[in-house]
Every structure is written in C-alpha cells, then in structure tokens.
User: Fold this.
Amino acid sequence: MSTLGDNIYNLRQSRGYSQIQFAKLINCSQSSIASWEKGKRIPNMETIKKIAKICNVPASSLLPLEETKLYDDDIREIIDFISKRPDIRKLFGLVRFMPEKDVDVLISVASAIKKT
Assistant:
C-alpha cells in the first residue's frame, strides 16, 4: 500500500518536477519535500490541498486509502447528523459562501463535537 509520502513522490515525478522546483511551487523548503517523501513528516491539510491544486488532482488522491476511508466515514456521519437537524442544516447551508479556511475550522469543530 502506498503512503502519503509515496503519493507525493509519484505525483511530483509524474509532473517532472525536482524537489527544489516542487518546493518553490508550493512555497516550502526542499527538505520538507524530502521529509514527506521519506515518511519522516507529513504536510498539513492546507499544504496537501495546495499540492493537489497545483497538480490538478483531488486532495483525496494523495491520502492513503485507509485515511481517505476514515475521512469519508467521518463526513458521512456529519452529513447524517446535520440532515436530521433543520437548525444545523440551515447553518451549514451558509457554508458554501464561506472561505475554505473557515470551512476547515467548521469541520474541525464538528469532529471535536463528535468525539465528545
């Protein structure tokens, strides 16, 4: 099974970028790229989204299958919960007008609520 680092490496290679070129595109250091590809560190979700956007692929395609499945399961649970609550459904109807970073905050809050 591939890891996030493998997926970043393969995507970078398929686009013909060196680590230095790729680092400049996503505004990070070459050593960060190397650390991700070796599995020593992982990029934050904002960086994963940036990589995906630059390479014109869905962010989920970078995540290992298990992580994607867990994320999808969490989203389904949240959607199910929201669909049963008209007051919350109305609130989340406004999400489409929010900046992406604010949506990420809402997802984090929803995940924290789910854990309690």
Observations:
- The chain has a mean pLDDT of 78.
- Residues 4-62 form a domain with the 434 Repressor (Amino-terminal Domain) fold (CATH 1.10.260.40).
- The chain has seven helices and no strands.
